[in-house]
Automatic annotation (TrEMBL):
The chain crosses the membrane at residues 44-65. This is Sulphur transport domain-containing protein. Keywords: Membrane, Transmembrane, Transmembrane helix. It comes from the Bacteria.
Length: 80
């Protein structure tokens, strides 16, 4: 199941990266992204979000995301 969800995330990230211009035209620009990331900041935000989605999906498929979360977050909540 992890591989299926990971592949789904990778495909979604690639499609989001490919069609970010059309998606931005459909949903509109983010004023805060334009303010903090400069002109074209909404497009930059969408690209960063798509690349992070791809990276996190690959990490999910390989199990490294679970190890990272389990190793770093659990120490703050009484684990290990």
């Amino acid at each position: 199941m992890d591989i299926f969800l990971g592949l789904l995330g990778v495909v979604a990230g690639i499609l989001y990266l490919k069609y970010n211009y059309k998606i931005t035209n459909m949903i509109g620009k983010f004023p805060w992204a334009e303010n903090y990331l400069g002109a074209g900041g909404t497009y930059t935000f969408h690209k960063i979000f798509a690349v992070l989605t791809i990276i996190l999906s690959i990490m999910w498929m390989t199990g490294t995301l679970q190890e990272f979360i389990g190793g770093n977050v659990s120490r703050y909540f009484g684990g290990r």
